[in-house]
Amino acid sequence: MWQAMKAATAIGIGVAFGSLMMSSLMGGTSPASFIDIPALLIILGGTGGVTLASVGMTSMKRVPSLYKLVFSAEPPDMRGQLDRLVSLADKARREGLLALDAMLGEIDDAFTRNALQLVVDGTDPEMVHAILEAEVDGMAARHEASAAPFEKAGGFAPTMGIIGTVLGLVHVLQNLAAPASLGPSISAAFIATLMGVGSANVVFLPIANRLKAISAEEMELRMMTLEGILSIQAGDNPRLVSEKLMSYLPPAERTSGEEQNVARLDVEAKAA
User: Fold this and answer.
1) DSSP state of 17
2) Structural domain boundaries, residue 231
3) DSSP one-letter string for 47-63
């Protein structure tokens, strides 16, 4: 299921392109007729240039890695993080907060590890909340900046397409003395608009929206972690921690996961 979710963006864009090509074939138009180098140069070069001018070189350098992220990002393991936080709450409840120090090296997620380190160090709860919330806000700002090149490109591409069409029509009007060439020339002129509108709505804007969705998922994971860490620091009962954090999970995952947590905590309590 996760593999399908990872491939959803690629599948969606592929379906959109395939539908457009199928529609043109059914209408009797060859896909080869859409290949127009001048129009492609206007869309790619023009859109790329004005996007670079808008967001700067630093943001543009991240574009290749962001394409890779969109097509390969895995959904966050909310269930696994919840179980981890409940386990930490159980250990802190039985052995004290200082016992968590030995577990820091086992935690791969830097945000969770740093948050737990603050708790182990005895940082004031309000300060822990402020530090973690600032880190989440900073992450959200970075993610918003990452989506900006694709949003800007999605806005500029249709306009560049119109500019390309106008340039093409100027060429058509300059050759009115050759009526036989008017049809192909007009067709080529409108390809620029097609490329601009198509690239914006099939590539740039969907990728920008997907980056925002990935950011929202990451934010949800971070907020759940923040809530769990503060509950651990407050010494809340592990079952209460589990119930608090369960609201961050989709309804379908809540009941079975909660039952598993209760059963595990009962076993651990008896063993202790």
Assistant:
1) H
2) 2-26+38-81+95-235
3) HHHHHHHHH-HHHHHTH
**Residue 200 counted as domain residue:** yes
Cα–Cα distance measured from residue 256 to residue 215, given in angstroms and rounded to the nearest whole number: 27
Alpha-carbon distance 221 to 72, whole Å?
Answer: 18
Residue 246 falls within a domain, yes or no?
no
Burial grade of 27 (CB within 10 A; 0-12, 13-18, 19 or more): exposed
In sign, the C-alpha dihedral spanning 79, 81, 82, 88 is positive
Query: pTM (2 decimals)?
Result: 0.81
Q: What's the burial of 117, exposed, middle or buried (CB within 10 Å: 0-12/13-18/19+)?
A: middle
Q: At what angle do helices 110-120 and 78-95 cross, to 10 degrees?
A: 20
59-94 pLDDT, tens digit per residue, is 999 999 998 889 888 888 899 999 999 999 999 888
